[in-house]
Amino acid sequence: MSERLRIALTKGRLQDQSVELFEAMGLDCTPVCHPGRRLVHAIPNYPLDAVLAKAPDVITYVEHGVCDLGIAGKDTILEQGKSFYEVLDLGFGKCRFALAVKQGTDFYGTYKTRRIATKYPNVARKFFEEKGMDVSIIKIEGSVELAPILDLADAIVDIVETGVTLRENGLIPIEDVAQVSARLIVNTASMKLHKAVIDDFVSRCEQELERRR
What we know:
Strand content: 25-35%
Order of helices and strands: EHHEEHEHEEEHEHEHEEHH
Shape: elongated
Strand order of the largest sheet: 2-3-1-4-11-5
Largest sheet: 6 strands, mixed
Distance between the termini: 29 Å
Structural class: alpha/beta
Mean pLDDT: 95
Number of strands: 11
């Protein structure tokens, strides 16, 4: 295959798990494993260049076509919206969005407008719109658990993995909002222009994921 693809990887744990998947598929990821200060790395034995980026930027690069593919969490996809193809659930990076409140709070037992603190306002807004509930969304950049503790909010919508942080701050999850895992996304134009090599890459991913089941 003469065409080279470019894939944006989310830095951190998703990058490590992506590399683990690629190596199991037979790709030589040595340049990505030892990146130094470089942010773009050519895979020596496959027509693929890996771009290391923050999660929101992965979406941006794929949407604008400077990367053909990307690996991002479903949380980022849900929050930012999408104008690309979401082609594969990679099965790692699993967690969930949850609605959480202070212990003893009767969240649904009042008619007042609830205040919801979150780092993910679009996810939270859509969740409550689907319930037909009128809420006030408060965007928080740091530790969202502080908002109910300081009585800034009646509840939070946040990513939950083990629930330990919630418990240690006197909060409990009362409802799941959405399940989250890493997804492979593809630029819409690239899917047509580089169909053969993209289909090959997706097929290799699928075969390895099936082998792991």
